[in-house]
Design goal:
alpha/beta; Rossmann fold; about 350 residues; binds nicotinamide-adenine-dinucleotide; about 15% strand; 13 strands; 7-stranded parallel beta sheet
């Protein structure tokens, strides 16, 4: 069970977060602040209005720059004397990757390369968690959930760019940060984390189911649902970030056998179709109205995707805490509080989640 005590290793740690202005990064920085960590972030400026990062108002130690700029990145990591890095900066949208493949690969692959190179040049960094995605697996439309040692691949440019980031990370793990030479030739442990479809308050990105539903409902409009039968592992952002923090803790504790890839996902029986998630949302907030898109002319997206979470459960003692229904409930509560009462309940939800 995660709580402030079990993650006390972060107290006063110098934690560098790329992608801190985004949805998951801003939640992560809030969790870290509550754990007593010092954080610095590196990202582009928020590109949504509203933005969770801006609402939280924690702009100290924030570098706004492109991760393709290796010099800015190195200076930011080095100047902060970072001890652990969580790398979340990415172009994270499948449809955008079809529109802009070059930017997708530049950010997701070259950005990860720049980060790994910066770490080679920065003695203070001891632990690194590279965030990729459930979409890194070669999707065979299997009923079975994917395990960490399944084949990597990617039909669309987002998925393949993240699989490239995994391969790149693995290459650096073996070539420069080999665990056989840990403490003899280097001091760095690197792991990667693959999470499912993450939901939670404060996400205003386009092409994401719950944010699209909320935006339409606030305008008293209906939501057009693409890919209603696509099955995904939906999880609350706090379950996902809890996994990243537990993994980072194992690396900070110098457990070199944890420097590998990890899935963080709900139990596979929890996986739900897009339509099921929309239906649960309507049950929770009856004002929500849904229309299923009949035209299937959109770009290819995976139909069936489940992740096997048993490795993280058995070896990291990580467990998903909120099932999919509760994740949807907590997410809708967050948005209703924001839109109907003008209150941001991020810290309250973290407190509730971490039994503070
Ligand atoms: N949200 C999900 O459902 C989900 C699921 C699996 C994995 N992920 C991964 O989690 C991470 C965070 O995703 P998110 O949902 O918070 O996305 P987001 O779009 O909300 O945030 C992305 C962050 O990356 C930064 N960024 C983008 N391009 C950059 C660049 N060129 N230089 C510097 N910073 C740049 C943005 O400024 C932002 O801070 C990503 O790596 C994403 O692939 C997300």
């Amino acid at each position: 069970m995660v709580n402030k005590m079990s993650l006390s290793i972060y107290q006063a740690k110098r934690v560098f977060v790329t992608g801190h202005t985004g949805f998951k990064g801003s939640w992560l920085c809030s969790m870290l602040a509550l754990l007593g960590a010092q954080t610095a972030g590196f990202s582009l400026a928020p590109n949504t209005e509203p933005s969770h990062f801006s609402l939280l108002g924690n702009n100290s130690n924030s570098t706004i720059a492109d991760i393709a700029n290796s010099t800015s990145l190195l200076i930011a990591i080095r100047d902060f004397q970072s001890e652990i890095v969580f790398h979340l900066a990415a172009q994270p949208l499948v449809r955008e990757s079809y529109n802009n493949p070059l930017n997708t690969y530049q950010t997701n692959v070259i950005g990860t390369l720049n980060l790994l190179e910066a770490i080679r040049q920065c003695d203070s960094v001891k632990s690194v968690v590279i965030i990729t995605t459930d979409k890194v697996y070669e999707n065979k439309e299997w009923l079975y959930p994917y395990r960490e040692n399944d084949q990597l691949g990617g039909y669309d440019m987002y998925s393949s760019s993240k699989a490239c980031a995994e391969i790149l990370t693995h290459s650096y793990q073996r070539s420069f940060f080999n665990i056989e030479q840990y403490k003899e030739k280097h001091q760095v442990l690197i792991a990667s984390a693959r999470a499912g479809n993450v939901i939670g308050g404060g996400d205003w990105s386009k092409d994401r189911l719950i944010p699209d539903i909320i935006k339409a409902t606030i305008k008293e409009d209906k939501t057009i649902i693409r890919n209603p039968l696509a099955i995904r592992p939906w999880q609350h952002v706090l379950d996902c970030l809890q996994g990243y923090l537990i993994l980072g803790k194992a690396l900070l504790e110098e457990k070199k056998e944890f420097a590998e890839a990890w899935n963080f996902a709900p139990y596979s029986f929890e996986s739900k179709t897009v339509q099921e998630v929309a239906t649960i949302s309507m049950e929770i907030w009856p004002s929500i109205k849904i229309e299923i898109e009949q035209n299937d002319s959109h770009n290819h997206e995976a139909g069936l995707l489940k992740l096997d979470n048993s490795k993280a459960i058995s070896r990291l003692q990580w467990t998903p805490k909120w099932d999919t229904r509760q994740a949807i409930q907590e997410t809708i509560t967050w948005y209703k509080k924001f839109y109907l009462e003008g209150i941001v309940i991020t810290e309250n939800q973290i407190g509730q989640y971490m039994n503070l």
